[in-house]
Design brief:
Chain lengths: 259, 317
């Protein structure tokens, strides 16, 4: 089975994240780039499926040159090879542009199964898997907390507000996973060493037949017009519980008309 | 006035609060048309939508629409976008709502904005990103603006609408039917409001100590008519079901009031609750970062404070 995992490099949430005042896009130099956490769960799930059903795991990322660190992490976990879509023309792409560029690349490299994390910690749009399914005409099996494959049939448990839905489709399909699905493995020393020798194919937009007019800042369907750092929350009242903490909290809630 | 489509969220035939918020917001921008997708439409539902200003209600009641993941709703909306040429489409910024918006954006070659907390003239959306650290104003520059609006961003206000009904038949494409829901499994959550749309959320974390102890969190939530949330530490420990996890890899909530009990306030958690209007924190560690966010903080043992608070709330009811 040809499994492609889409991964994204994001700014570390433990550091200060910024937008670039010049063009209102993510400032990738302001913070350390790390693999998006949910992408690790996607890689783990791909590796598990490969271990159970055979095949090959390809990591696909769209991002600047320094996103190779993220590719290496996924390869060190056990993915077989990687495709890095990198082109200056992609800078500033929104969700629609990104889904278009990734869909074009996926059509080029082929897949039986595409796996993504359900959202990224930077944009948090949560739309990419649905968009890829739409663009690829493939079944959408998103927000999976469990994935089962039987021949060409795939069944997931889709997390919902009331519990979960069991959803079934035929391969090829697009799957997104939530954090509950597994426990991502740590790359072993051997894995880290092996990752250095694994093939990474670099593609530009022309290689993937991506129309420049539909990507980047100028091709995007939406734009950030303006932004401002949120004012810090005003310091609140902190009291020590002297047996009356509950009563004091109730007074506060009453003063705000919550009770 | 320009027509604004609002996708109705409904459970067991009942219109969810977020839809009333969206209708209220849509009224400030144009003439709201509610779009009902799937079975369950009734006179009661119609009355509710009319009460909050729906000038028109498109009803597509086919079972098919609910039996497949997201795609049929996007097809229905795409059809209405093409026939009604609305000024915008609003959906709730729930996990499913955002997925509908994403697919609709591609079908109609339109831009999409997710997690809007406000929407003003010219359809400029306000968004709060990086866990509430940065406020941005953004807009759609191609196609029909599709905006996923976060629950609790607008106070619902009643204002009668004409509620002219129009039945819509949709012939779903094979692609839309590709992922089939074969079973729905409800897990116990009692009568509590849904987490992402609750006006009040009471969350427990590591400090709660055990699954059994979550009963005191639930009691406080029930006294306040609130939803229960949990930190990742609590769900990882198996003390509370995963779908109630608030945080970076869980749900984002934006309630009027958020009460964090026994939660230290790690970035993972803050990313999911930082935009709550009022935050109350209970923690025995005075250095816990959650206190930096709290409008009111109590340093002490939640096992004493939470039951006392519950009692006080019940007394004042």
């Amino acid at each position: 089975m040809n499994i492609v995992v889409c991964v994204k490099q994001v700014p570390d949430t433990a550091t200060e994240r910024k937008l670039n005042a010049k063009d209102n896009t993510l400032d990738r130099d302001a913070a350390d780039g790390v693999i998006n956490e949910l992408c690790e769960y996607a890689v783990e799930e791909a590796l598990k499926i490969k271990e159970a059903h055979g095949g090959e795991v390809t990591v696909l990322t769209m991002g600047p040159a320094k996103a190779t660190d993220t590719i290496r992490k996924a390869l060190a976990m056990g993915a077989d090879k990687a495709v890095h879509l990198v082109d200056d023309a992609l800078h500033g792409s929104d969700a629609l542009s990104t889904s278009y560029a990734l869909a074009q690349t996926l059509k080029k490299i082929g897949f039986d199964l595409v796996i993504l994390g359900s959202e990224s910690t930077d944009a948090r749009t949560g739309v990419l898997a649905a968009m890829l399914a739409e663009r690829l005409g493939a079944p959408q099996l998103t927000l999976a907390r469990k994935v089962e494959i039987d021949g060409s049939s795939i069944t997931i448990e889709r997390l919902t507000d009331y519990g979960f839905d069991r959803v079934q489709a035929s391969l090829p399909a697009v799957v997104s996973v939530v954090e509950k699905i597994n426990e991502p493995r740590y790359p072993s020393f051997k894995g880290i060493m092996a990752a250095k020798k694994k093939p990474v194919q670099t593609l530009g937009i022309a290689d993937a037949e991506i129309d420049a007019a539909q990507v980047g800042l100028s091709g995007a369907w939406s734009e950030v017009a303006d932004f401002a750092v949120a004012p810090p929350r005003a310091a609140g009242t902190i009291v020590k519980d002297e047996g009356d903490g509950g009563a004091k909290a109730a007074e506060f809630l009453a003063s705000k008309k919550f009770i | 006035m320009a027509e604004i489509l609002v996708l109705v969220e409904h459970v067991d035939g009942e219109v969810k609060k977020v839809t009333l918020e969206l209708l209220t917001l849509a009224r400030s921008l144009g003439s709201p048309s509610a779009v009902w997708a799937g079975p369950g439409y009734s006179e009661a539902a119609k009355a509710r939508l009319a009460e909050y200003g729906a000038d028109k209600i498109y009803v597509a009641g086919a079972q098919d629409i609910a039996d497949h993941v997201v795609a049929p709703k996007a097809e229905l909306l795409a059809r209405l976008v093409s026939s009604a040429s609305p000024a915008a489409v609003l959906v709730a910024a729930t996990a499913e709502g955002k997925e509908v918006a994403g697919r609709l954006a591609i079908k109609t070659d339109s831009g999409v904005l997710t997690d809007a907390v406000g929407l003003s003239d010219g359809l400029v959306a306000e968004q709060s990103i990086f866990g509430g650290g940065v406020n941005v104003k953004s807009k759609v520059v191609k196609g029909t603006p599709i905006v996923a609006v976060r629950p609790n961003s607008t106070a619902p206000e009643a204002s009668a609408g004409a509620a002219a009904e129009e039945q819509v038949e949709v012939e779903l494409s094979d692609a839309a039917k590709a992922a089939r829901v074969v079973e729905r499994v409800a897990q116990d959550k009692g009568a509590r409001p849904e987490l992402t749309e609750a006006a009040i959320v009471v969350s427990g974390g590591r400090g709660v100590g055990s699954a059994e102890n979550f009963a005191i969190i639930e009691k406080l939530a029930d006294a306040l008519g609130a939803a229960v949330g949990a930190s990742r530490a609590a769900t990882d420990a198996g003390w509370y079901p995963h779908q109630f996890q608030v945080g970076q890899t869980g749900k984002t909530v934006s309630p009027q009031l958020y009460i964090a009990a026994g939660i230290s306030g790690a970035i993972q958690h803050r990313a999911g609750m930082q935009t709550a209007k009022t935050i109350v924190a209970i923690n025995k560690d005075p250095e816990a970062p959650i206190f930096e966010l709290a409008d009111f903080g109590i340093v002490g043992d939640l096992h004493q404070i939470v039951p006392n608070l519950t009692e006080e709330v019940q007394k004042r009811k």
